[in-house]
Amino acid sequence: MKFLDLAKRVLQESQKPLSGSEIWQVAKEKGYVDRLETIGKTPEQTLLARLYTSANDPDNPNIKYVGTRPKRFYIPGVTPEESLNFDEEEVLEKEEKVKKIGYKEKDLHQVLAYYIRNHLGAYPKTLNHSKSRKKEFGAWVHPDMVACYFPQNHWKHDVYDLSQLMGDAQIGLYSFELKTHLSFGNLRESFFQAVSNSSWAHQGYLVAAEIKIDRDFLIELERLSNSFGIGVIQLDLEDPDSSEEIFSAEERDFVDWDTVDKLMMNADFREFIARVKNDISSKEVRDEKYDEIKEVEDLIEIFKNKI
């Protein structure tokens, strides 16, 4: 079975417009995916690409689409006309309400900490928002996690000492906003929360375990990333080492120290700043003073029954 044949069969049986992700899910449930001629590493993305190509081909009347967020595909002459009329915003709201995730945002901190330490080479610190002084607290102030990159771990001592004397030690401060999922329903609020909470750091990131696989959504996510310099990381809960930075963060060559001073309202952040200062001075990073980094096998076990 070819990808488009799979899509047509699902659409014929469903008798209603479906997004690419919905088509793939139904095909998996019915066992059609097992009958594909080839799978590849990213079969769902391959299906989406074939659907978009076919639906935008004026010489191919077999598959068309309605809506935009996301596009929903149907077969002209087969799908009932009445099912093509729906309130797009209402459908989005319903999708967000019924979405069930077996883990919470706080559960993801351990996976992000693992990624930061092993793939960014930095030392992470989770910020507990409840530790902020209430009278100074405001919305969209705290990142969920911060981290520091120490070049002294990678450079020879004389090189590092000279870089400090020349005021170019290349120490990196990172900020992370963490979400369980990203879709059109929460994209703008989540993104601008990341922008607000990360404006002080050398690099800022928006991180999620589930990111909607939809061409229009990814185009908008990339546009926002490019416009504001915020990187996007997708965590892989089944294989944390396969987590990846799907859009790169812009690296700033300065730190907004006024905002850093404001963030000192949070006890965890104060501890982080003091720790970084001590580690720079002593030229010895104390791993145990940052977030504990679990073994990858332990992380996989934690989420085995939650995905």
Distance between the termini: 28 Å
Low-pLDDT runs of 5+ residues are none
The biggest beta sheet, please?
Answer: 6 strands, mixed
- The level of helicity is 40-55%
Query: Over all CA atoms, what is the radius of gyration?
Result: 23 Å
- Helix and strand composition category: alpha/beta
Mean pLDDT: 82
Portion in strands:
5-15%
For the secondary structure, the number of strands is 8
Identify the overall geometry. elongated
Helix count from the secondary structure assignment: 11
Major β-sheet strand ordering: 3-4-5-6-7-8
List SSEs in N-to-C order. HHHEEHHEEHEHEHEEHHH
What report would you give on this structure?
There is one protein chain. By secondary structure, the protein is an alpha/beta fold. It has helices spanning 3-14, 20-30, 43-55, 88-98, 109-119, 157-165, 187-198, 215-228, 257-263, 267-282, 296-303, and strands at 64-66, 72-74, 123-126, 145-149, 172-182, 203-211, 231-234, 244-247. The chain has eleven helices and eight strands. Helix 7 (187-198) links the parallel strand 5 (172-182) and strand 6 (203-211).
Provide a concise account of the structure shown.
This protein has 307 residues and is an alpha/beta fold. The chain has helices at 3-14, 20-30, 43-55, 88-98, 109-119, 157-165, 187-198, 215-228, 257-263, 267-282, 296-303; strands spanning 64-66, 72-74, 123-126, 145-149, 172-182, 203-211, 231-234, 244-247. It contains eleven helices and eight strands.
